[in-house]
Design goal:
about 220 residues; globular; two-stranded antiparallel ribbon; 8-stranded mixed sheet; alpha/beta; Rossmann fold
Length: about 220
């Protein structure tokens, strides 16, 4: 491979310093670093892109979707402040790389993917790696997964263009955190941290500009 996990980790640690003021910390949580080293990114990218697996950039995974930049995966995971007891809802399973990350940091992960092919492939991939604390669902991520809520944390891995889906905010526990990219276009997006305070008030903090594929809407029958 042209890049190594050591060089990737060093690059991510350097980038934390650049955004430290925006995210409120200047280095990754040690558990996030352990996940970076422990989740084999090469297992989540197409065979013809494995030489690029440890490059700090997104890569296509088919169906018009991407595997996120490792730095973004690290920051989004870090901002959720997960513990080994946390119950997490992930919107957008994709190839399962972020899912595998969350599985190392939380107690239980519930992940929703609108594309059945991606969900099935991710489920098989994680099972092959011995990951057992993830439940998968094929469906419209905008509706969340209310049967298992409320959640300690919610992560959205595609851009909510316009309004953040109200159903997701409803499924967040008081004291819970949600990280979601929002924007009005592909060129105008911001990564946002939402915190639900006691009483249901939502506090919003803009972190930094990002570029995600849009959150896919369910097709009408």
């Amino acid at each position: 491979m042209t890049d190594s996990i050591d060089s990737l980790v060093a690059e991510i640690e350097s980038e934390y310093g650049i955004v430290a003021e925006r995210i409120g910390k200047d280095k990754p949580d040690p558990r996030v670093l352990a996940a970076l080293r422990g989740v084999p990114r090469e297992a989540f990218v197409p065979a013809d892109r494995r030489a690029e697996a440890y490059a700090n950039r997104p890569l296509p995974i088919g169906f018009g979707q991407t595997i996120s930049q490792p730095f973004i995966v690290a920051v989004m995971s870090d901002m959720l402040a997960l513990t080994s007891e946390s119950r997490v809802l992930e919107i957008g399973t994709g190839c399962g790389y972020q899912t595998a990350f969350l599985a190392r940091l939380a107690g239980q992960v519930f992940t929703v993917e609108i594309l059945a092919e991606l969900s099935a492939a991710a489920k098989e991939r994680l099972a092959g790696q011995g990951v057992s604390n993830v439940e998968f669902r094929v469906g419209d991520g905008r509706q969340g997964w209310p049967e298992h809520g409320p959640y300690d944390a919610i992560i959205v891995t595609a851009a909510a263009m316009g309004e953040i889906p109200p159903a997701l905010l409803d499924q967040l526990k008081p004291g819970g955190r949600m990280v979601v990219p929002t924007g009005t276009s592909m060129l105008a997006q911001e990564l946002v941290l939402m915190t639900k305070e006691e009483g249901g008030r939502i506090a919003k903090r803009n972190l930094f500009p990002v570029a995600f594929v849009p959150l896919v809407k369910a097709r009408r029958a």
